[in-house]
């Protein structure tokens, strides 16, 4: 086996810092709320610690497997994800919450296949784009097949419905096609064609229209559809420069819904202030920077595409989540990577980081743009 450099310490530190801070904020945001429901203020904390332990084990396992071996698993994993997404749509099989059927009951936890779909789709694209590197500008080879695969995933996700994950996969597709050198005209035309479809999905859904109205003017709907975003903005505002102090936030006390999940960044802004929020965003920026750095230094093209896709996935989901809780974007239901409460999101995110760290560790080897170091099945 080829000797590799040590794991990128900067990336490793940034990931562990975000995970650790996430555990603290999950407890701070959920203790009073969950105690009123279960009588145990540590309920979510204990579950999140289990999620962290499992996630770190998955991350370390991914680092040991070697990203180049993932080539043979790209298509089986994608097929498995499609099967799971179909199972979610079968009445009586999935766990339904908040008007959506997104989770499969696995006994110890409810697993969300949409989270794994993000990793599987990036892996599929990295594999396929590497295989087709010499014909990437051909419409029927380099563009259409990837668009069709994405379309199948989108239909299954929208059936749940999970508009946020569907939009994320679409943007990841366009980004990775652009990085691979697909003709920009194909991407632009597909993007323009997607706009009326997105418009139809929004105006054709009552709850999406309500979210859009709440985004456009949350204060006009302060006590109904704009309640959550209004509370989130007030939470940020009450934090000021330095915050109210860890554990001293008030809006988590039955005012802000989903304070420990989708809106955990609001709690960061309230309790740690503007300085704390910027520090968290800086850690995310470090993760994305080191991810792109790993992509540029990868010894093969497959690793380059895979690292670019995974880093872009973290960047995109972070930007969307932060945009939602600060009122810049309509509510999407996407968690904040590493920090929000939830097993599926944390496990899949740390799996992505394990792969990314392995690519980074291989970056000291001699570059091989043709991808010959990858053993293709």
Provide structural commentary.
The protein is 66% helix and 3% strand. Helix 1 packs antiparallel against helix 10, helix 5 runs antiparallel to helix 6 and helix 6 runs antiparallel to helix 11. Strand 1 and strand 2 form a beta hairpin. The chain has one domain. The protein is globular and about 55 Å long. The protein has 377 residues and is mainly α. The protein contains twelve helices and three strands. It has a three-stranded antiparallel beta sheet, with helices on one face. About 2% of the residues have low confidence.
Summarize the structure.
The chain is mainly α and 377 residues long. It has helices spanning 9-38, 43-65, 74-88, 113-131, 139-158, 163-180, 184-203, 206-216, 227-239, 264-297, 301-325, 343-361, and strands spanning 95-97, 100-105, 110-111.
What share of residues are in beta strands? under 5%
The counted number of beta strands is 3
Number of domains: 1
Taking the alpha carbons of the first and last residues, their distance comes to 19 Å
Structural class: mainly alpha
How many H/I helical runs? 12
Low-confidence stretches: 365-373
Rg: 21 Å
* Overall body shape: globular
What letter string, H or E per element, gives the SSE order? HHHEEEHHHHHHHHH
Question: What is the arithmetic mean of pLDDT?
Answer: 86
Please give the order of strands in the largest beta sheet.
Answer: 1-2-3
